[in-house]
Amino acid sequence: MKKNQTTIGRRGLLAAGTLLPPALAMPALSTPALAQGAWRASHAVRIIVPFPPGGATDMLARLVASGLGESLGQSLVVENRPGANGVVATQALLNSPADGHALILATADTHTVLPAANPRLPYKVADFVPVSGMASVVFALAVRPGLPAANVGQFVELARSARQPLTYASYGYASVSHAAGEMFRAAIGAEMTHVPYLGAGPGVLAVTADQVDMMMVPVAVANPQRSRLKMLAVANAERFALVPDVPTLREQGFDLTADAWIGLLGAPGTPRHVAEAIHAAVSRVQQTDSFQQTLRTNGFSSLGLDPARFASFLAAESERWGQVVRRGNIRVES
């Protein structure tokens, strides 16, 4: 077994404590009908994760895998394939049979924003088969402690009147964090300078150290630093249970939502009934209280989208973030 592979059995962790292909473009079956479907895995199923072990996406993959094994009748292997902003992991899926035994835990970073910024990717995201839209990462607008702004309105006044453009951090160029920062900058009509960091942690630390003015960052990353930064808003449609005292951007006059989806995609050509059977198994895991509690405490909100609805969602997300990327001139030349 490879160094970054972890096999999770049927009980696993629980015991331990963007377009729809024509074959899927039809209404999904109900969950009871799916439960009676004929497809079951014939050998171990791989969930390829485009990030190193230990992060929030990796945690989500392992949590799902721990419950999926029992439903699919096989062990689940979480395979970490970091590199090139998800390209390495995606190519690994392309080299796998289209039979449901290999999936990728894709994200808005790897399969929405990056493809919009880099049209030269060696694959088309639209070719992959939507399986299950699982969760979204809730983002917050965080500012440095020394900035004289107690709310979004005051920050906007500063940004518009500053002699030198304020700065905004991101956890990487052509990431959701970058695009969300650009979305906010455009919404308030102010000049700001982007400062990319290699990860959310370093970016937040730069904010806490007064080295950069603002960052659009996952709530779960910013929240542990609440005593060292100011969280002015959540970029969500409604207040988030993890930080119920923080108002939304909409409440403060800016109708802006910036979140990052996470879900399972199958290899191009994966049959519709296979995708639906896997989604049904994922749905059963997601409906457990323990899974929902883990989502909330780690800064996720639940999606629960079947293949058909996930396909429509991905198409809308590609258009939404694509506009931000194009207007912000976010380009990856490779």
Automatic annotation (TrEMBL):
<dbReference type="InterPro" id="IPR042100">
    <property type="entry name" value="Bug_dom1"/>
</dbReference>
<keyword id="KW-0732">Signal</keyword>
<dbReference type="Pfam" id="PF03401">
    <property type="entry name" value="TctC"/>
</dbReference>
<comment type="similarity">
    <text>Belongs to the UPF0065 (bug) family.</text>
</comment>
<dbReference type="InterPro" id="IPR006311">
    <property type="entry name" value="TAT_signal"/>
</dbReference>
<protein>
    <submittedName>
        <fullName>Tripartite tricarboxylate transporter substrate binding protein</fullName>
    </submittedName>
</protein>
<feature type="signal peptide">
    <location>
        <begin position="1"/>
        <end position="25"/>
    </location>
</feature>
<dbReference type="InterPro" id="IPR005064">
    <property type="entry name" value="BUG"/>
</dbReference>
